[in-house]
Amino acid sequence: MREIALINHGCAKNLIDSELMLGKLAQNGYKITLDETKADIVIINTCSFIHDAEKESVASIFDMINAGKKIIITGCLPQKYKEKLKELIPEACAFLGTSEIDKIVDVIKKITKNKTKEYLVSENPHYNYPEDIMRQQITMGASSYIKIADGCSFNCGYCIIPQLRGPYKSRKMENIIAEAKSLTAKGISEIVLIAQDTTSYGKDIYGKPYLAELLTELNKIEDLNWIRIMYTYPSLLTDELLCAVNKLDKVVKYIDVPLQHVSKNMLELMNRPVMDYKKLIKKIRKLIPNVAIRTTFIVGYPGETQQDFKELYDFIKEMKIDRLGVFEFSKEKNTKAYKLKPQISAKIKKQRKNILMKLQQEVSKSVNLKLINKKIECIVETVNDDGTATGRTCKDAPEVDGLIYIQTTTPITPGDIVTAKVIGADEYDLYAVI
User: Fold this and answer.
1) Alpha carbons within 13 A on the beta-carbon side of 355
2) Contact assessment for residue 228 and residue 394, using Cβ atoms and an 8 Å cutoff
3) What is the pLDDT along the chain (434 residues), one digit of tens a residue?
4) Coil, strand or helix: which one is 62?
């Protein structure tokens, strides 16, 4: 049986799709490698959310073509460009859209036996999580993602995800709980719930958002230590959900709520909820004492005035958000923002991003310095021979937030939840002892 290699691009949601494809291959007896030099066939699971992500995916595609590999291009890139991609990359053996990942085995059989080219890309994608497949995890550590839904039924002005993934589609609660138990049995300490929007979870199945109920059931899993929620939607952060986060002992007190902007003018142009975000942040902090809040903002959206930008700057300065990312607006075809005017120059976008990131570094350092001499819960990720370890605090999500570097004389192992005393801090990371 041939070895199949896979290269994954994009977010954690894409990673799970890659792991599902690998799981399907493993169930059908294929040998899997992440070293593309050892395989004749390479699957490249692509991202097309913004232009830079596309460039990374395309670079991998041509690297593999130049290396003489048979390539299968899956995910967002073929979904976005459809027939056009076949013309641009005739060397590819197959294309699978975002709704077709469960067909990976059939495609490989056909291209190896019949020497034909396969093209499976739905005109109207509709995501269905293949519940019969056991994910073959690419990365194993203390934490693991669980995709609770995919697709999106919102229509943000800058975003192409609804066109790439289709309408919002939740997984059944019992399937999510079964997966969480399976991961916990493998030694996973933290599960991270992801979707295009986690707060809409269940509304298409149960008639209303059901995230609070899901958290309540996951909280009952005996050997699970932490539950973290990502990608919440501001207008769906209800008192009920926030109170559930506060009262459930395994749910970390961490809210990731991408706000994207705060100016009324910008929020209307972005087709985002026009809300008083200062009031929202204060409500979160009131209902979840000692909460860590993460958000992201977009600068340089078409029509963003200097006054809009100042309003955003002042908000960040005043509200002192614990974790914050800033993205320059990326112009994507088939979105409302593509034709909006005036477009902002690349120079101004970069300037505005740098100004906000410099401000946030000051905010983040001041937040971290307040933790010195305090004890905080951490999840251990790696342990070194010299008595040091690297981990994350309960206030930090994997891959996007900071780390905590721990000195210890106590034996600890990856996956342990430990309490460490903070002795130092910089803009993003902490230093501690046990």
Assistant:
1) 17
2) no
3) 578 999 999 888 899 999 999 999 999 999 988 888 889 899 999 988 667 778 889 899 999 999 989 999 999 999 998 888 888 899 999 999 999 999 999 999 998 887 778 888 898 999 889 999 989 888 778 899 999 999 999 999 999 899 999 999 999 999 999 999 999 999 999 999 999 999 999 999 999 999 999 999 999 999 999 999 999 999 999 999 999 999 999 999 999 999 999 999 999 999 999 999 999 999 999 999 999 999 999 999 999 999 999 999 999 999 999 999 999 999 888 899 999 999 999 999 999 999 999 999 999 999 999 999 999 999 999 998 887 999 999 999 999 999 999 999 888 999 999 999 999 999 999 999 99
4) helix
Sign of the torsion formed by the C-alpha atoms of 170, 175, 180 and 182 = negative
* CA angle at 264 for the pair 263 and 266, rounded to the nearest 5°: 65
By the 8 A CB rule, do 323 and 294 touch?
A: yes
Give backbone dihedrals phi and psi of 75, rounded to 5 degrees, phi first.
90, -140
Using the CB atoms, write b or e for 231-246: b if 16+ within 10 Å: bbbbebbeeebbebbb
Domains within the chain, CATH numbers bracketed = 3-120 (3.40.50.12160), 143-369 (3.80.30.20), 375-433 (2.40.50.140)
Handedness of CA 158, 160, 162, 163 (dihedral sign): positive
- pTM beyond 0.85: the answer is yes
Count of other CB atoms within 10 angstroms of residue 351? 15
Residue with tokens 């994507």: 332
